[in-house]
Amino acid sequence: MINNEAEFLKELLAMFKIEAEEHLKGISSNLLELEKIQDAGEQTPVIETIYREAHSLKGAARAVNLNQVETLCQSLESVFSAMKRHVLAPTPEQYDQIHAAVDRVGQLIEKPDLEIADVLQQLGRLEALSKEPPQAPAEPRTAEPPKSAAPEPDSSGPEPPPQPEAPAASAAQEPAHQANAAWNAEKDRSLVSDTIRISTSKLDSLLLQAEELLASKLTALQFTKDERDLVTWIDAWRKEWEKREPELKAFRRDIEKFEKNADGRAEAWFAIHDFINYNYGQVKVFESRIQAMSKASDQNARGLGGMVDTLLQDVKQVLTLPFSTLLKILPKIVRDLSRDQGKDVELIVKGSTIEIDRRILEEMKDPFIHILRNCVDHGIEKPDDRRKANKPAGGYISIIISQSSGNKVDILVSDDGRGIDADRVRASAVRHGVMSEEEVRRLSDAEARMLIFQSEVSTSPIITDISGRGLGLAVVREKVEKLGGSIALDTEIGKGTTFRIQLPVTLATFRGILVEVSEQTFVIPTVNVDRVIRIRPGDIRTAENRETVLLDGKVVSLVHLSDVLGLPRRSRRGEESDMLQAITLSAGDKRMAFVVQGILNEQEVLVKSLGRQLVRVRNIAGATILGSNKVVPILNVIDLMKSAVRSSAIPTKMTTTEGTEVGKKNILVAEDSITSRTLLKNILESAGYQVKTAVDGVDALTALRTETFDLVVSDIEMPRMNGFDLVARIRGDKATADLPVILVTALESREDRERGIDVGANAYIVKRSFDQSNLLEVISKLI
Amino acid sequence: MIKRKLKTESGAPNTDAAQDPAARKRTDILKSRAEELAVELAGQEDTGNVIEVLEFVLASEHYGIETNLIGEVYPMREYTPVPGTPDFVMGLINIRGRIVSVNDIRRFFDLPVKGLSDLNRVIVVQTARMELGILADRIVGVRTVQTDTLQTSLPTLTGIRAEYLRGIAPDGLVVLDVEKMVMDTRLIVNDEVE
Q1: pLDDT at residue B5 above 50?
Q2: Chain A: closest CA distance from residue B120 (Å)
Q3: Cα(A240)–Cα(A165) distance, rounded to whole angstroms?
Q4: What are residue A631's DSSP bridge partners?
Q5: A4-60 pLDDT, tens per residue?
Q6: Minimal Cα distance from B84: which residue of A?
Q7: Chain B interface includes A630 (CB < 8 A)
């Protein structure tokens, strides 16, 4: 913790140096310009700038506890203020003195314990000049042009200008001058810092590219996995070989024994045996190569993965910005809001130099505004009410930002208003139908107050155009949680309310769980996943027409993810089909269990948009590309919960699915075009058939060997093995000789039709005249 | 050495051409040819109403899209359907790490989806504000179409909304007004869950 603090101060100091360098440059260059300008009217804006720069520098120095710098700046500020009021017009010598003082500030930043008494004295003298009756040449022509916007110099710093220490000054004067030259040289080295300005768009593109590397990393991992599979495959082959080898050897011995009466045929057998041995040798070579390759690709994937992770982390570090970039817009918002409401509110901000990922800052802008609105609208009372409660008429809101640990930032937004009345929240929740009166009564005060983060709950008795609609805080919570943070609430009636927000400093790489639903793969954000469960159908209870399960003693509603997404239900085939696999998701304080077909694995994913046409799709948050290059949609859990509430209102047909599954006819579709394949699959599935697909004739034959089908629908033109050959092979095999086959084709010639019938197809449908009722009719005739 | 040689060579023909009548005649011929070529080019630019279109087949109809709106043509190997989208959105494809949505324009045009088609190609249409894929069975090639020969309406043309029709070429090529089509807000999916 102390280390962190020290580390943080160091970073802060580094930042201050960069800032200071800019201010000093500004002051110096403008001073130079000022000296050239003769006309007092033209001088004014330049002095204004110098004054502002000095003032900012003073403030910044105070923030990093550089007292000497602050003191010197204070002195400079007073001089500039005098110049601003046109009561001081420095002579060239005096300008030199000012320049020297400015230079000294630069040196001080590098070496904070440097002596400054001499410059302070000089500046003090300069300032004293201004207090004497105005000298003639400085300001006779123009009347003083007052700048109303400029802050009064005296109000800016509460500390009085420090008294220069006279005795040390005169003695130090000469050496200080010599020191100046030396310091100047050093300044060039140290203050021309190693910082450059880069446009954010360039950095964003850098981040984007670094993130894209994540895909390469995932692909590399996929390759190693594939190669490892190959190795196990060859292992299986070797085991089989070892089993058969003795038989082969025995066979050869037998043949050798009968060689004499085998009239030369043994030679042929030996040749075959030699060929088998040759094949064995070749596969062994293949095996060792694959093993070496698998190892190499494993190393490569790990190396690449490490580099990509480090690079991504570094680039994210580069993309952090201080909170001040966001916070500077807030004071005006608070001022405007409080004025509208006839309230007097002061905003205090601390820790605005702490840095955080720029994307988080952007996302947090609205939540900040919502919270502040909430504070002004609900928290701070009207001045009269405050006086009655023995509080100062003016309220305050403070935003305090601190870095709590390596990758976490704490934000406290507090007001000294009336606090949040749990009973009023309860009443509002009941009024809006979020909870029943009884449910509300069972909540503790703290639990009840958390209800304000739910949409539709508001404590405001009237709806204003800024808050009270009960949406704001729900959105705040959603945003904060989406960013991987958390929000909590402290309140004391009559004393005030504090929102505690914890945010990550950089956006973590998105992790997701891959699930299978209706034979499609989807990604669910890991942050939303509570746990994975298995449910016995008998444990499902129905309450108010909704299915529920008991989890950790709590009733959780259960829906089929396929129903929510509008996809056909599909249960896992095989021995486990009586157990349902489900995943419990949470968003905000809602929790729900979703039945899925299967859970594949968890991995890092790179979130991408769905393109420009699909701006927002319900239930889908985006998409990602897996290591296998496949596009997979990412589910939007908040949407899913909303959709689930609607879809479960429709009576579920849970019991019927299990029943029909058994009696379903099984159809194999062989078609090389992905669209036609999917179309056929959809048509057949919606007609109640169970469908399996194959990409060509060879694929179809393999499927036919491993599973039994009631009918085959096949395209004619396919790579590797066309439809005619497929039909011929099906007819040639005893097991499938009677299997009905429908050929679907773009070929329309009579010869083709005849050939189709020749090879033994049961029906022939031309794609041009294809329509689904036609196909279904033919199928229903055949099976 | 070389420099000097170049100098003499570049200098010589000019002076020769000025004096030798054969060379002068040669120059004249070349000059007139060049002028002819130049005139022809200028004349083509003057007509200015030729557009270049990519011709493709979709369910045995021939369509054309102006090539300047086409980013690329991509083979359709695999796509991912997205639940909750209108049925003209077939799904998503991955074009070198970029995700692009693909559309079956027959469904968007409310054309009867008659006949199974292969839909093996995706034509990626790009405008300043939109990028999307249009499915095609087969790409025929790039050709030019004279805009003044385009017929803007044809009673026999079923289904296609006139608004997306640039016109029909004499040989029956249906030239689509893709720019107008992608501006159609009905094409954009922006769906909230209430």
Answers
A1: no
A2: 7
A3: 97
A4: A625
A5: 667 767 777 777 887 788 888 888 888 887 877 777 778 888 888 888 888 888 877
A6: A618
A7: yes
| Contact (Cβ atoms closer than 8 angstroms) between residue A497 and residue A490 | yes
Tokens at A672, concatenated: 């090389």
CB contact under 8 A, A617 and B84: yes
Q: How is residue B38 written in tokens?
A: 């130049």
CATH 2.40.50.180 fits B50-187, yes or no: yes
CA distance A21 to A102: 11
- DSSP 8-state class, residue A381: P
Question: Which residues in chain A are contacts of B76 at CB distance < 8 A?
Answer: 674-675
Three-state SS at A506: coil
E strand or H helix that includes residue A564: helix A561-565
Residue A91 DSSP SS3: coil
Interface test with A, best of B58, B193, B194 (most A CBs within 10 A): B193
Cβ separation of B131 and A770 shorter than 8 Å?
A: no
Going by C-alpha positions, the residue among B120, B115, B103 that lies closest to residue B178 is B103
Q: Do B131 and A611 touch (CB under 8 A)?
A: yes
A233 min Cα distance to partner chain B (Å):
27
SS3 content of chain A, % helix, strand, coil (to 5): 55, 20, 25
Tokens of A10: 């160091």
Q: Residue A533: phi, psi to the nearest 5?
A: -130, 160
> Shortest CB distance from A618 goes to which of B77, B78, B192?
B192
| Comma-separated ranges of CATH 2.40.50.180 domains in chain B | 50-187
Residues of B in contact with A695 (CB under 8 A): none
* Cβ-based burial of A444 (10 A; exposed 0-12, middle 13-18, buried ≥19): exposed
| Nearest beta carbon to residue A620 from set B82, B90, B103 | B82
Q: Which residue of B has its CA nearest to A611?
A: B100
One-letter identity of residue A148: S
Of the two residues A393 and A572, the one the predictor is more confident about is: A393
The per-residue pLDDT for A173 is 47
**What DSSP string runs through A198-215?**
--HHHHHHHHHHHHHHHH
Please give the structure tokens belonging to residue A758: 């020749």
B99 with A769: Cβ contact below 8 A: no
Closest-CA residue to A4 (of A210, A12, A272): A12
In this structure, what token pair is assigned to residue A224?
């190693």
Q: Read off the DSSP letter of residue B27.
A: H
pLDDT, tens only, A535-563: 888 888 887 777 888 888 888 888 889 88
Are A84 and A150 in contact by the 8 Å Cβ rule? The answer is yes
Question: Cα–chain-centroid distance for residue A215?
Answer: 16
Q: Contact, A178 vs A185, CB < 8 A?
A: no
Query: What percent of chain A is modeled with pLDDT above 90?
Result: 11
What's the rounded Cα separation, in Å, for the pair A230 and A225? 9
The one-character DSSP state at A376 is I
Q: Which of A516, A507, A514, A540 has its CA nearest to residue A529?
A: A514
Contact A478, A501 (CB under 8 A): no
Q: B191 and chain A: CB distance < 8 Å anywhere?
A: yes
Give the 3-state secondary structure of residue A258: coil
On whether any CB of chain A is under 8 Å from the CB of B94, the answer is yes
Q: Choose among A413, A422, A478: nearest CA to A446.
A: A422
B141 contact A CB<8A: no
As separate numbers, helices (DSSP H) first and strands (DSSP E) second, chain B gives: 4, 11
pLDDT > 70? residue A734: yes
User: 């010599």: which residue's tokens?
Assistant: A178
Residue A607: name the closest of A492, A489, A506, A509 by CA. A509
Q: What is the helix (H) or strand (E) element at residue B174, kind and residue range?
A: strand B174-176
Would you call A610 and B190 a contact, using CB atoms and an 8 Å cutoff?
Answer: no
Identify the pLDDT of residue A594. 92
| Residue from the list A625, A639, A680 with its beta carbon closest to the beta carbon of B94 | A625
